[in-house]
Amino acid sequence: MRQAGAASAAVRTAAAAAVRPGVTTAQIDAVVRKTIASLGAEPAFLGVNGFPGAACVSVNDEVIHGVPGKRVIKEGDLVKIDVGARIGGYNGDTAITVPAGNISEDAARLIAVTKQSFYEGIKFARKGNRLTDISAAIQEYVESQGFSVVRDYTGHGIGRELWEDPAVPNYGRPGHGTKLMPGMVLAIEPMVNVGDWHVKVMPDRQTVKTADGKLSAHYEHTILITEGEPEILTAPETVI
Ligand code: MG
Predict the structure, then answer these.
(1) How far away, in angstroms, is 156 Cα from ligand 1 center?
(2) How many CA atoms lie within 13 A of 197 on its CB side?
(3) What is the pLDDT of residues 147-169, one digit of tens each?
(4) What is the CA radius of gyration of the chain?
(5) How close is the Cα of 37 to the center of ligand 1, in Å?
């Protein structure tokens, strides 16, 4: 899991560096495929529920599961990159929101709040706590900043399968769900909307957009519950 996490982090870093006005989302996917191959890994997302890419590239009001294609990134876009690498039968999963060129102040605040909400959640990712202690911390922080958390999609357990139990909602009351135990690995991934939390699936049956057309951001790491501090397996500094 540490190797898969480190590979996923390296792929996310390479993909984020490729974001700039003028590139297509397919070009970002190509960077992801090349980086995954160079690490001796396999793309964890390719073919899942018919997904045709190695990366989900979701722009502006697209929340998650954006299909890479001909879309050209423009100045001011918010580009969400979600990637997963599999090594030795184990999966990593991580996502980041990258600004293309100069973005609005509101968009920059959305990115910062989304990232910080992950760190508010992981404070509770400790032995003996309950799963929704994480969920509640994310929701409380996001809503305190005037944004909303997506309800229809959640984080998840991860291991030999990309998506395993338990689901890790980004909302809820604390004190419920699975008791957290050392050795559990979770993908914690707040999806945060500027407007209302409702989303809709587009006719491509993959891309999820905000229902109100307002901006959304995404941030995700694969983390390990330990005897003490949680370990971020997809942290930028992880080395394969
Ligand atoms: Mg995930």
Answers:
(1) 6
(2) 16
(3) 999 999 999 999 999 999 999 99
(4) 16
(5) 20
